[in-house]
Backbone:
């Protein structure tokens, strides 16, 4: 455990990738208090403005104590664009959950990110709101979250001004456990501006995780993102399809 935690600590360096982070993918199911987490490496084929080959890694830490759950995720991606250019993107995410009811928790999160391909020079998010557990079964779990967040965004398209806005962030998530070694997680986000609902983002991410042997699993993830008003020259819709190996520890 101490050795695994040391490895994770050494790997936490900078920030990460997609426009809307699926926070559900950060939650590691565990019945014990203390530290847990995972490390993964992946290979991605991606298409938006260009065709990409992406190699990446991410580190996830989780600390659970009584009614408190703290999540930290730090990813980094290296991208080869159209077989020539080399670029990168990153996200750092911190989230705290306080469960004051068996089926209700209060969430607070901070996220910082950049994405050169999507012309996002810097985006910072600070949000809070309730999270509701809709089911009681341990074989399938459904959650609904309704948050308000402040967004600071700087893009490099030469036209879009500095953005400082408030957005809603509603999500519906489910986790399925059809067998001991198979997990399916899917989350869909809807994030409109509070003063202009025509300016919104939608993100849907589904992951299939299959256990290989002790602490190791293979995961395949499909992500679809729609942004009603992206930076100039960036398409409204984008997708990712990635697969990789994950090492988890408790």
Residues:
């Amino acid at each position: 455990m101490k050795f695994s935690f040391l490895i994770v600590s050494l790997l936490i360096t900078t920030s990460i990738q997609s426009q809307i982070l699926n926070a559900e993918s950060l939650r590691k199911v565990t019945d014990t208090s203390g530290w847990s987490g995972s490390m993964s490496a992946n290979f991605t084929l991606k298409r938006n403005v260009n065709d990409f080959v992406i190699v990446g890694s991410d580190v996830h830490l989780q600390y659970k104590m009584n009614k408190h759950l703290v999540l930290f995720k730090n990813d980094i991606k290296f991208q080869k664009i159209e077989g020539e250019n080399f670029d990168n993107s990153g996200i750092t995410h911190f989230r705290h959950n306080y469960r004051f009811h068996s089926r209700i928790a209060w969430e607070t999160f901070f996220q910082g990110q950049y994405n050169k391909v999507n012309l996002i020079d810097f985006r910072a998010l600070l949000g809070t709101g309730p999270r509701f557990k809709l089911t009681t079964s341990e074989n399938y779990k459904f959650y609904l979250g309704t948050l308000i967040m402040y967004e600071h965004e700087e893009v490099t398209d030469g036209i879009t001004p500095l953005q400082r806005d408030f957005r809603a962030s509603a999500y519906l998530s489910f986790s399925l456990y059809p067998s001991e070694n198979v997990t399916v997680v899917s989350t869909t986000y809807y994030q409109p501006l509070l003063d202009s609902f025509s300016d919104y983002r939608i993100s849907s991410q589904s992951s299939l995780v299959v256990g290989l042997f002790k602490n190791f699993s293979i995961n395949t993830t499909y992500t679809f993102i729609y942004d009603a008003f992206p930076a100039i020259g960036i398409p409204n819709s984008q997708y990712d399809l990635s697969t990789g190996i994950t090492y988890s520890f408790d």
Summary: Residues 1-18 have pLDDT under 50 and may be disordered. Helices lie at 2-11. The chain has one domain: 2-249.
